[in-house]
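Let us practice reading a record.
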Amino acid sequence: MDDKNYYRLLGRREDDPAIAEFLQALQPSGPFPILPTSKESFKALAGRPPCVYHNYKSLGVSLCFEDSVLRAFHLYKGSHGYSTFSGPLPHGVRIGMCGADLVKLLGEPDGKLGGGRGGPISLTYKDKGLQLNFVGNDWEDRGNLLDSITIHEPL
């Protein structure tokens, strides 16, 4: 499995064998097929179909499907009830990097979310298909650690 697999899998249907192979590569000695720990449905955002998340908590990953089509990966650093994701990440990103190192690696983000009372901060790189979510909510904390990553189709 390489870090380009994420982008190759986006847009595939949930029953596509390539998705099962991706999950199996994360736990080669585990049972096959790997079944989600849980599935959660969320109402649609404006102009979008409803989202169904297939959560694989022991693998540190949640897959977001819209109309049974894979739209995003959510990868966790041992937070939100998930184990730490152990697979490769795109663009040289590593779980647990701090904000300053990520900006040095990826450049200035397209957007910034959260902070202060708005909750933990996030950096978005639309052209790379990344949203990087951090533990803390202080924009001045250059050591703020990466908490989770969302990978979606680049815009």
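A brief commentary: The first strand starts at residue 38 and ends at 42.
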